[in-house]
């Protein structure tokens, strides 16, 4: 799994031969739907390992500061704690799955009496709000498409 998008959707990535096998056998594997995405690589998998060293070297030239707002790491699904962690996790992001579903759970899990924050879906034409609705339908009610 390259991306945990929401409870009913995961994005798979891998060798072309493996993807072709999945395309032919997906019903037997228990998948209901399958659609190939138009991407150029097996991002967020070990197949990206050759890019790690050059990316890490390039990242050494970049100044990284703690964000002024809470930023969640796609690798851990948790907020970044410091600049060292940001640098370390950005490198891991090349070869580890994106935990989008887990991040949404952390952002929108709250006691019943606590209101959800207003969220703005900017640029996706409502796609992100739709994903949010599949993870937390109540939180999606406070999401506005911009």
From TrEMBL:
Signal peptide start-end: none
Gene Ontology MF terms in the entry: transferase activity
InterPro entries in the cross-refs: Ac_transferase_dom_sf (IPR001227), Acyl_Trfase/lysoPLipase (IPR016035), Mitochondrial_malonyltrans (IPR052760)
SUPFAM superfamilies with a match to the protein in the record: FabD/lysophospholipase-like
Protein name: Malonyl-CoA:ACP transacylase (MAT) domain-containing protein
Organism: Bracon brevicornis
